[in-house]
Write a structure and sequence with these properties.
The protein is mostly helical and about 170 residues long. Helices cover about 75% and strands about 0% of the residues. A two-stranded antiparallel sheet has the order 1-2. Helix 5 runs antiparallel to helix 6. It is elongated, with a radius of gyration of 17 Å.
């Protein structure tokens, strides 16, 4: 796959993820759930804009410069601190809708991350730089979605670490 094909495919992934988050935000009844999905949808929209600008540059100049790509995601420590406050927001009973949306989000984020990881290893030069940064950001998205799943499902896990044992 060449760089133009990779960016075009990445745009397809980001469009899919952005739509999923926007739909989840609109359907969610919990204010904090809406906010979480909204932040992720906005983040994916920034990714789309970035990728479209790189594709435009590639088509105009025949090459790209891997410009800095920021993220709105908090640090892992801030995410963990936020989880400590989740007890107060999860007073509503989830009837499965939020968990289904989160499951879809996790699946799409994993597919996207896997694609970016493959492109970061297969492409050369600037393409590797662009997609390596996307891998970092998407891994953060996976962590946030997994954390929400862990909390909503009340499995006793947080970031794949068992928090308590009933034995």
């Amino acid at each position: 796959m060449n760089l133009e094909e990779a960016i075009t495919k990445a745009i397809e992934f980001e469009t899919r993820v952005s739509k999923l988050y926007r739909d989840a935000m609109e359907k969610n009844t919990d204010p904090m759930g809406k906010r979480t999905f909204g932040v992720l949808a906005d983040e994916e929209l920034k990714h789309l804009n970035y990728l479209e600008s790189r594709l435009d540059e590639l088509r105009r100049k025949g090459a790209i410069i891997a410009e800095e790509l920021d993220t709105a995601l908090p640090s892992e420590q801030m995410i963990r601190e936020g989880v400590n406050r989740l007890e107060t927001r999860m007073t509503h009973k989830d009837e499965g809708g939020e968990l289904r949306m989160l499951g879809k989000a996790l699946e799409v984020e994993q597919d996207t991350t896997d694609f970016y990881r493959r492109m970061a290893s297969e492409l050369s030069d600037e393409g590797q730089k662009v997609f390596a940064r996307f891998v970092e950001i998407e891994e953060g998205h996976l962590a946030i979605v997994q954390a929400e799943i862990d909390y909503v499902s009340k499995t006793g896990y947080w970031f794949d670490i068992k928090e308590f044992d009933m034995e």
